[in-house]
Amino acid sequence: MKKRLLLTMLIATIFAGAYAQDEKPSFKFYGFVRNYACYDTRESLTSNSEQFYYMPKDIKLDANGQDLNAHDNMMLLSITTRLGLNVSGLNFLGSKTSAKIEADFAGFGTSNTVLRIRQAYAKMDWEHNKVLVGQAWHPAMGDMMPDVFSLETGAPFTPFSRTPQVRYDYVNKGVTLTATALYQFQYTSYGPEGASFNYARNAVVPEIYLQGMIKEGGFMMGIGVDLLTLKPRQNYSVTEKTIINTPVTDANGNPVFINGGEQIFVQSEKTTTATYKCNEAPVFSVTPTIFASYKKGNWGVKGRATYAQNAAHLSMISGYAVTEIRENGEWGYSNLNSISGWVDATYKQPLKTGFLTFCCFAGYTKNLGCSNDIVGDIYMRGEKNMDYMWRVAPSILYTHNAMSIGVEYNPTTVGYGTPDCQYKMSNTHAVTNHRICAMLKYNF
């Protein structure tokens, strides 16, 4: 008992000594009230009550040959209103510590919208080393985002995700090296049970992201790679059919024979289902990305290119497919591949009161298909017969003091086609949606 008490006192003394006696944490609340109004000329694939925009849906003809998806719609919502708290001011083991809690109302429940965690992490900063633990922006996009004000922030042409993680950064003379281990939560992969974080958790191995970045004056450039492992199935069921021959009997229960003396039987089919533990090889995906930006005065330009393998968890048009069905009922999988790129240019014009921000975003993504023939289901984000997609979105934003108001024109065109056995398209046709998005935001 005395040894335990002594050990407890020693640990308490060590950690108490890690903090200065006169330290006090500082708290800073922040956030904004944000309202989006969006008008679309076509039914589209969206999320977050149609505010997070992906792509227009393909033509769907009714009995009279009219397109069921060709109709206007409009909405006005404020569910992305945000509340946040930054905490700082304490030292721990020689580091400066900080923490962030951030939420909005874009979660979903029985009332459709509920309070949702966006970010919640603790951070330790030393001179050259930084450690972050908690939910934050995925490092594949958090270091450089497009300057558009629409909610999707350039997705699905660019990675977009916030996720629980342990991130380490080494920073020295403008160079930052990053290594991050992540697990899925709100932004998930697809599989036999739909969208779920279970495929990543059942694989046990965390998602790994590695990145190198350099900053010099107004120039920044970086390269990274995302490594994802999924286990789509924990078990599987095999249905077996057995033929049963039942003898025909008369009213007295005696067997019936035909004239030749052969007994008569009636055949029936019995179906049984057996469940087995799954030993399938996991799905392993590699998604490299490269990005750069330059800013001088009131001008700025950014761009990113990404080769996506099974990057649905990054809000990109991607996934994987069943490319082998073995005799014992297990499956083999292959990645669906795509390439995406975007660039945006911004200019800030100061006025007597406030300033104007002009931005033009352009993005393109191309489906590259699968390296093997697909023999089963496809699990992916996006429409399953997409060949290519492009978007050019100019916007203007006026800001004065706490208030910002802006409008963005977002035409998105998708080439839909007929997929072959490797998910490569032919006989494509273009479908376009014209989105006009207006925003009013009050910052505090």
What does this structure look like?
This protein has 444 residues and is mainly β. It has a single domain (22-234, 278-443), classed as Porin. It has 3 helices and 25 strands. The chain has helices spanning 2-17, 139-142, 198-202; strands at 26-40, 44-47, 52-56, 73-77, 82-92, 95-107, 114-125, 129-137, 162-172, 175-182, 189-191, 194-196, 207-216, 219-230, 235-247, 265-277, 283-296, 299-309, 319-325, 331-350, 355-370, 378-380, 386-400, 403-419, 425-443. The strands form 4 sheets. The chain has a 16-stranded antiparallel β-barrel. It has a two-stranded antiparallel sheet with strand order 2-3. A two-stranded antiparallel ribbon has the order 11-12. It starts with a helix and ends with a strand.
CATH topology: Porin
Helix content: under 10%
Counting DSSP H or I runs of 4 or more residues, the number of helices is 3
Domains (count)? 1
* Class based on secondary structure composition and strand pairing: mainly beta
Q: Mind telling me the C-alpha Rg?
A: 28 Å
Query: What is the strand arrangement across the widest sheet?
Result: 1-5-6-7-8-9-10-13-14-17-18-20-21-23-24-25
Q: What's the name of the CATH homologous superfamily?
A: Porin
Low-confidence stretches: 1-20
End-to-end distance, in Å?
Answer: 53 Å
Which percent range describes the beta-strand content?
over 45%
Largest sheet: 16 strands, antiparallel, barrel
Form type: globular
Number of separate strands? 25
CATH architecture: Beta Barrel
